[in-house]
Amino acid sequence: MIRFDNVSKRYPGGQEALREVSFAIDSGEMVFLSGHSGAGKSSVLKLVSAQERATRGSVLVDGRNVGALKGAQVPALRRSIGPVFQDHRLLVDRTVFDNVALPLVIAGMPRAELEKRVRVALERVGLGARERAQPQQLSAGEQQRVGIARAIAGKPSLVIADEPTGNLDPQLAIEIMGLFVMLAQGGTTVLVASHDLHLVSKLRKRVLVLDHGKLIDDFRPSPRPEAA
Amino acid sequence: MNRRVGPAPVEAAAPKLALPRAGLRAWFDQHQYSALSSLGRLWARRSATVLTVLVMGLALALPLLLSLAVDNLRGFGGSLTDSREIAAFLRVDATAADIERSVAAVRALPDVARVEVRDPAAGLDELRRLDGFGEALELVGANPLPSVLVVAPEADIDAARIGALADAIGNIDGVDFVQFDLAWRQRLDAALALSQRVVWVVGFLLALGALLVVGNTIRLDVAARADEIAIVQLLGGTDGFVRRPFLYAGVWYGMLAALVAIIGAGLAFGALATPVLRLAQSYGASHALAGPGFTACLAVMAAGIVLGWFGAWAAVGRQLARGKPQ
């Protein structure tokens, strides 16, 4: 699903965010990107969603070379990805329903199908009863769930999340991560950037550890021993 | 206080990346969405919208009013028949047959609308009515005046063609000399041509002003919605999708401004109609003031829409570039 081959990224100011990073993520896999602040986690996600282009190396998403995408191919790639942000990035002047419907409106989905998908997505994140609420009427955890519902409403095969639990208390963070685990169990590829190593270790998923732009570890937890 | 909600089971992901449906219905739905959402935004900021529309409307109304004024002036000049008539004085010894031949020759010329024969007796009566001439004419025994052909040219010809017609009349056998105030016509035509040019220049400058007004308004709207645009781009919104609501907003601004301009021009002409008609009548003309017609209204509406659309298109461009991969 995602393949990085010797990817480096240098920003215009000269800051080298990634250095010769290589990894591959299979379809349906859930992977954490971990590392200190400024390690390059967000840069990886930006390269995946074509917000940035690699300075060197190649980034493949679902077989498409992201660096070579032109014009209208970039929005098409982004429509195939469900992004989740640390600060939710909900439209405050729209209802929960309208926020979740936004990627479907962008995709040109017929109204009846759109309504069905929005309600399914909201049910999945436990907010089926709040579709008429405004985002500011919701708690931080609920807002993040709306963000996740928006990301999955279009049934993308890849969900990327940048510090999705960064503003949440530990209990809510576990709940939100639980949603991502279930998404992965359903066959969606999930790539989550998080600096919370404690939380990440609890979930026993593959972890790519970045340090100053270099991939220093690709940790795959051993399978949990079967109960006797 | 955050609420704990257990997540529902998750279905398998869709096997394909792209969402279905990109047909006519989807295209229509997206346009409807953009058109209505842009209207909603204009309505939500009513006072700012009214101000923008009024400024734009004024910028459209001024060239419309100037253009209509020039058209009316041209019509008014054309209807000042006395100043356009050519007087052809025939020889004093012309017989009735000579006069008939001269009239026929004049009628055969192009650009002649009407020919009237004023015989010497009628000319003498006209002179007698003028102050100071009555007693002088008593001293003259026989009528010294010749027959005169009063020639009215076609209404829509300019001074140069009237001058050419006067020359042609002067060359007709039996015509002694021709009297025609060419200089007055030339000055009027030159003034009208200058006015027409002024209309174009002022129209262009005001259209540019309208473009900047709508462009700036949309630019502020774009800046206020930069976060929303960024989100839409991250969710896969194309340039067209991002731009569309702003283009609709520009079109709404342009349409409303054109309506303001047309109504304003109509009211202005309604208020001026009676005094202008009185003025025209005092000059012997019957020209009634013509307000903005259907074609002019259509042109103003089209200009408003094009200016609004183009201003919005230019304003969104820079923001769109920010969402491109660097």
Short account of what is shown:
Chain A is α/β, with parallel strands linked by helices and 228 residues long. Chain A contains 7 helices and 10 strands. The radius of gyration of chain B is 34 Å and the shape is rod-shaped.
Give descriptors for this structure.
heterodimer, A: 228 residues, alpha/beta, six-stranded mixed sheet, four-stranded antiparallel sheet, 33% helix, B: 326 residues, alpha+beta
Describe the overall structure.
Chain A is an alpha/beta fold. Chain A contains seven helices and ten strands. Chain A has helices at about 40-50, 75-80, 95-105, 110-125, 140-150, 170-185, 195-205, and strands at about 1-10, 15-25, 30-35, 55-60, 65, 80-85, 160, 190-195, 205-210, 215-220. In chain A, the strands form two sheets. Chain A has a six-stranded mixed sheet with strand order 6-7-8-3-9-10, sandwiched between helices. Chain A has a four-stranded antiparallel sheet with strand order 2-1-4-5, with helices on one face. The model of chain A has no long low-confidence stretch (mean pLDDT about 90). Chain B has helices at about 25-45, 45-80, 80-85, 95-105, 120-130, 135-140, 160-170, 180-225, 225-235, 240-280, 295-320, and strands at about 85-90, 110-120, 150-155, 175-180. The longest helix of chain B is centred in the last third of the chain and has 44 residues, at about 240-280. Chain B has a four-stranded antiparallel sheet with strand order 2-3-1-4. In chain B, helix 8 runs antiparallel to helix 10 (about 240-280). Chain B has eleven helices and four strands, in the order αααβαβααβαβαααα. Chain B is α+β, with helices and mostly antiparallel strands. Chains A and B meet through helix 2, helix 3, helix 4, helix 5 and helix 6 of A and helix 1 and helix 9 of B.
